[in-house]
Design goal:
The protein is of the alpha/beta class and 199 residues long. The protein is built from six helices and seven strands, in the order ββββαβααααβαβ. The chain has two domains: 3-78 and 144-198, Vaccinia Virus protein VP39 (Rossmann fold, 3-Layer(aba) Sandwich); 80-139, no CATH class. Helices cover 30% and strands 20% of the residues.
Length: 199
């Protein structure tokens, strides 16, 4: 089985990897340098939100091209619904002590993350923790370009010819190689939506 990860910082054993930091160095806003029908599975985690919407659509279309018929794509990202949860009137001012908010703020204020561009800005002291987290996740200091709503991702994949498009749990998959593959620290687990689809 031939597998591709997109945007990872390190290459998994037995996998191909493409992105700006490891493996095949390539800007994935452009078509990937693989022939059609190459891969049985493609996985990306917290990558798609770093592309503008039109770039994301073009990228997903290219993923469909390089997947073998019947191959699986797995996409994990912070869906826009998470921003809505943080900012809805019902939750206004009620989430400042939520474990997710506490963990997110800890990472943001940790000196060990300040060398990473997306964490170099500081929380706004005039806003609540809850507001700061929502705004930071939405933009991540300019690194996040578009947080796909869940249903829009599903409909876009279907419009590109993918079938059996489903939201899945982080540790579940239709193929063994994708089970338990995602990062497991609490902030990521809480804010991440995962979708799988068949080419």
């Amino acid at each position: 089985m031939r597998l591709l990860e997109i945007g990872a910082k390190v290459t998994r054993e037995g996998w191909d990897n493409i992105g700006l930091e490891a493996g095949i160095i390539h800007d994935c806003t452009f078509p990937m340098p693989f022939i059609s029908d190459t891969y049985d599975g493609i996985f990306s985690e917290h990558f798609i939100e770093h592309l503008h919407k039109h770039e994301g659509i073009r990228h997903l279309k290219d993923c469909k091209r390089i997947l073998k018929p019947g191959g699986t794509i797995r996409i994990a990202w912070p869906a826009y619904e998470h921003i809505e949860w943080l900012t809805c009137e019902e939750n206004e001012g009620k989430l400042n002590n939520h474990p997710y908010i506490k963990d997110y703020m800890f990472i943001w204020n940790d000196e060990r993350t300040k060398h990473i561009n997306s964490w170099q800005d500081d929380p706004d002291p005039n806003k609540s923790k809850q507001e700061n987290v929502a705004l930071h996740l939405l933009e991540q200091n300019g690194e996040h370009k578009y947080l796909w709503p869940k249903q829009e991702m599903i409909e876009t994949l279907e419009s590109l010819g993918f079938t059996d498009v489903k939201v899945v749990k982080w540790n579940r998959s239709r193929i063994d190689e994708f089970k338990n593959i995602q990062e497991k620290f609490p902030v990521r687990l809480f804010e991440t939506t995962t979708v799988e689809a068949t080419a």
